[in-house]
Specification:
By secondary structure, this protein is α+β, with helices and mostly antiparallel strands. Helix content is 55%, strand content 13%. The longest helix is centred in the middle third of the chain and has 50 residues. Bound molecules: adenosine-5'-triphosphate and magnesium ion. The site of magnesium ion has 4 residues, from helix 9.
């Protein structure tokens, strides 16, 4: 069995999980990064404060500078100062640009802030790198990292995975529920008598366990609808066929009631004949219905085909003494795992048909040839044959070609239908072909084990 569904589910879950993990790590890094810097506007604001302080400092306006610093401290509710640092290396290397870029009294306004810093000290250097504007970061300028870090962690760890998993689950659900719904609808429609309903074509290009199930459903639907149609037809045909013998039975009984002595014996004989016919009709139809319904495998006993054909031919010779039967049979033809009764009846029906259509004095030929893996029985008569367009149909129940036979001799059209299903039940095949110049040849092929 293909494992299409397994791979599809694996693809959805696998790709979904990888995307989830990637998104999680990307988003958490990204948001943390975004939340760790002062916003552009706040950077400009702090820079503007520093510029103003520098202007006052360069103008030597220490009162103005002090006032202005007090003003900022009040408005921003923080601490601010201009400090001088005299950083001279006493020994070792000079303090170079690298030092001034990465180290300072406070943090540069473009530097990254960390959640463990409570109120970071921000530093903006004046033109003279030893003079610095320092300001404790005003509360209103704190970046998101201080307030939202916790919340983002929860969002990343719980909400985002839940949302993504929901998306994966929905995808899986859609993938599985769509064919299930189609199957469910079809089963319901079928159970309401819409036997023409099929599912496979509704599933389009899909190919997995569900399409296999759909094909099995379609096969089942096909078989059951065929069965129901044929059974309905069989019942309709049977009741139709029963009418004639029942009508004749009624007439005979009527005659018996009236009690006309002359007709008495005739009427009794008629009643007997009709009851035999009705029984045969009912039994044949039931056997046919059984063979169609159950499609039994009747391969249960070993037999010798030559013996079986001999018995059938003996009976036929007795029944039709004015026709000749010519045979071409080997000494023996062992046939394992077959069915005496089914094959016997099928042969009997075919030989009897042949004898009926063969004119008096003419010959019916029966031959059995042994092939490497099959037996072939040919029954050739000298009757009128069957028009090509009827050759297939004569195997349908109650199908009769309108020809020579008439009156009491006309059968019900069940013989070949039964024969075909009986031969099928033992694994064989049956075919009808016309002969030249005239006559019909029935061919039965039966599988034969190579070593027999
Ligand atoms: N050997 C044959 N030659 C010509 N027509 C045949 C021959 N065998 C069968 N048929 C045609 O096929 C029809 C079906 O045959 P089938 O044996 O099923 O029914 P039947 O012989 O009419 O009735 P039943 O067998 O039920 O008594 C026959 O009615 C007949 O028209
Ligand atoms: Mg017949």
């Amino acid at each position: 069995m293909k494992r299409g569904l397994l791979w599809k589910l694996y693809a959805i879950v696998g790709v979904g999980t990888v995307v989830l993990l990637y998104l999680l790590s990307f988003l958490s890094a990204y948001t943390q990064e975004r939340m760790s810097y002062l916003s552009e506007a706040h950077q400009q604001q702090l820079d503007a404060y520093a510029q103003q302080a520098q202007r006052l400092y360069l103008a030597d306006d220490s009162d103005g500078l002090a006032q202005w610093l007090t003003h900022i401290q009040q408005t921003e509710n923080t601490w601010a100062a201009v400090v001088k640092s005299d950083l001279d290396a006493l020994a070792g290397g000079e303090l170079n640009d690298y030092f001034y870029q990465y180290y300072g009294i406070g943090r540069g306004i473009q530097w990254k802030l960390h959640p463990w810093m409570d109120q970071p000290m921000m530093e903006i250097d004046f033109i003279d790198p030893n003079v610095h504007f320092l300001i404790a970061l005003p509360e209103r300028m704190r970046p998101g990292i201080f307030e939202y870090l916790e919340l983002t962690h929860w969002a990343m760890k719980i909400i985002l995975p839940l949302v993504l998993l929901l998306a994966i689950a929905l995808l899986l659900y859609r993938h599985i529920s769509a064919p299930l719904r189609q199957l469910n609808d079809a089963t319901r429609a079928f159970s309401h008598g819409r036997f023409e309903v099929r599912v496979r074509k509704l599933m389009g290009n899909r190919s997995d366990e569900f399409t296999e199930l759909a094909m099995t459903f379609d096969k089942m639907a096909e078989r059951i609808s065929e069965l129901i149609t044929s059974q309905r037809q069989l019942i309709a045909d049977l009741s139709h066929e029963l009418r004639t013998p029942l009508a004749r039975l009624d007439i005979a009984l009527e005659k018996l009631k009236i009690g006309e002595a002359v007709d008495h014996d005739n009427a009794v004989a008629r009643v007997e004949r009709e009851s035999v016919e009705i029984r045969k009709l009912v039994e044949d139809t039931l056997t046919l219905a059984w063979l169609e319904n159950e499609r039994p495998a009747l391969q249960e006993e070993d037999l010798d085909l030559v013996d079986l054909i001999d018995v059938v031919i003996d009976d036929a010779r007795f029944e039709f003494p004015d026709r000749t039967i010519e045979t071409q049979l080997p000494d023996r033809a062992p046939l394992p795992k077959s069915n005496h009764r089914a094959l016997g009846q099928a042969l009997e029906n075919i030989v009897r048909n042949g004898m009926r259509y063969t004119p008096a004095g003419a010959t019916l030929e029966v031959s059995l040839s042994v092939n490497s893996n099959s037996y072939q029985i040919d029954i050739k008569d000298q009757g009128p044959g069957v028009l090509e367009e009827h050759l297939e149909k004569i195997f349908q129940p109650f199908y009769r070609v309108d020809n020579a036979r008439s009156g009491d001799d006309s059968g019900f059209g069940l013989g070949l239908a039964l024969a075909k299903r009986q031969v099928l039940a033992i694994g064989g095949e049956i075919q009808a072909n016309n002969r030249l110049p005239k006559g019909l040849m029935m061919t039965i092929s039966l599988p034969r084990p190579a070593n027999q």
